[in-house]
Every structure is written in C-alpha cells, then in structure tokens.
Specification:
By secondary structure, this protein is an alpha/beta fold. The chain contains 12 helices and 8 strands. Bound molecules: 2-phosphoglycolic acid (PGA).
Length: about 260
C-alpha cells in the first residue's frame, strides 16, 4: 500500500517571519495526523527557519526548485548540495518554471539526475496545457514529459510524480477525480513500461491544480491518486490541515 502524501507549495509567498507564523499555526496539529506524508515547501530563504520549527516532528520539508550543478559561478542559484542539508524533497519541473523561466525537458532531466546524488527526493511535475488538453493530446504530452524527464534515470528511489494539468493550476478549475485518475493511471502504465510493474505499483503519483478542502475527497477517493500537491490554499493553515486530515482518513478507510 502506498503512503499518501500532501505537499504544500507556497510558491513565491511569505517573508521569513510570515513563514514562521504559518508553520507555527499548524505544526502541532499537522504533526499528529498519521498514515500520510506531510510536506511543506516554503521559499528557499525560509527553509532553515521552518526546518528548525519542524525538527523532530513528522512534518517533512521540501524546496520548490534547484539548479543542477553542485557548486560554482552560477550567481543567484541554489545547488542540490545546499538543499540536501536542509530538506528531503525538491519540486522539479513545475509548470510555472517551465512557463516563466524557460525550463526545458532537458533542464528538468538534469535536475532529476542531480537530486538523488545528494539524497534529495524529487517531486517531478508534469501536465498538459489547456490547448493540448482541448486537442485531445493529454496522453501524448504527459508521456513525452515523463519520458524526457526520466531519461537516463535507473533508480527512482523516493521520486514522487505530481500530475498537474496546467489549465487547473491557480485557476479554481480543478480536473475531475475521474479525469485525474485516468491520466495518473496512464502515467503509472508508462512507469511500468519504462521500469517494471513493481516500481509502478509502488510509485506515488499526486494530483495538483486547484485542490481545496472542498474537493480533496474527490481525488483522495480515486484508486490511482496518492494525494495532492497543493498551491494557493496551502497558505491557509486550517484549509491545509483539513486537506491532510481528509486524505489520511479516506486512505485509511480505503485500505481496510
Ligand atoms: P494551486 O497550485 O493549488 O494554486 O492550483 C498547484 C501547484 O501549482 O502546485
């Protein structure tokens, strides 16, 4: 049985003091919810402060991005080595990075290759754009993104995939549970094809895009969906807690 995961992507929000306040507002309750991995991904500059507050708890920390080189003259970049000291997970290939910062499949692949070398677990984001969805190209686009991201990766140790249709991110227009379940099932088939069935069955694949406390049950009840990557509402402690609680309860019930 796969352990479900809810990851909160705070994006470019919160100052250090705001990040500290947000974590303080949820860490005790969050810590107590079991049967689920709870990951928070604040901005780089708050990782150390937030990490200090959740130390010794069951809450895990992730970064939102990284560069693929270990160190050197890359002004302004953050290396895998720097992150490995601070956190366990790193979001890679988020559609906002692909869209606004020209991250290509090749760059995403280099990052996916670099992360495990220092023990970081990538949360790899893939998903189709609206026009691709409307043209019926979802399967083709998602398959291509998955295969190019994972080129040359032999060991998927700890890697998590987030299926995030671009048209659903930050729009308030989430996919339906059935739609997301179908595409995630397809991603799982691709993993079986690229690696083997055992790896595919064990792989955690999340849904992301306008997930809220009001719609999380729709996703958590689907057999292929192992949780969610939550953006906007992960900045609201009560809503994030509700998403985590609901997912934990639903998955516990389904596993009986
Ligand atoms: P959203 O973002 O929940 O605000 O739609 C999801 C994401 O970008 O991971």
């Amino acid at each position: 049985m796969r352990v479900p995961m809810i990851a909160g992507n705070w994006k470019m929000n919160t100052t250090v003091s705001e990040a500290v306040a947000l974590v303080n507002g949820m860490r005790y309750e969050l810590d107590e919810i079991d049967n689920i991995d709870k990951v928070i991904c604040p901005p780089f500059i708050s990782l150390a402060a937030v990490g200090g507050l959740i130390k010794g708890s069951s809450i895990k920390l992730g970064a939102q991005n990284m560069y693929f080189e270990g160190k050197g003259a890359y002004t302004g970049e953050i290396s895998p080595l720097m992150l490995a000291d601070l956190c366990e997970f790193v979001i890679i290939g988020h559609s906002e990075r692909r869209q606004y910062f020209n991250e290509t499949g090749e760059i995403v692949n280099k990052k996916i290759l670099a992360a495990p070398k220092v023990g970081l677990k990538p949360i790899l984001c893939i998903g189709e754009k609206l026009e691709e969805n409307e043209a019926g190209r979802t399967e083709e686009v998602v398959t291509e993104q998955l295969r190019s991201s994972l080129a040359g990766i032999n060991n998927l140790n700890g890697l998590v995939i987030a299926y995030e249709p671009v048209w659903a991110i930050g729009t308030g227009k989430a996919a339906t549970g059935e739609q997301a379940n179908e595409t995630i099932g397809l991603i799982r088939c691709n993993i079986a094809d690229l690696y083997n069935k055992e790896i595919a069955v064990g792989m955690r694949i999340l849904y992301g895009g306008s997930v809220t406390a009001a719609n999380i049950a729709e996703f958590a009840n689907q057999p292929e969906i192992d949780g969610a990557l939550v953006g906007g509402v992960s900045l609201k402690a009560s809503e994030f807690l509700s998403i985590v609680k609901q997912t934990s309860e639903i998955r516990r019930r389904l596993s009986r």
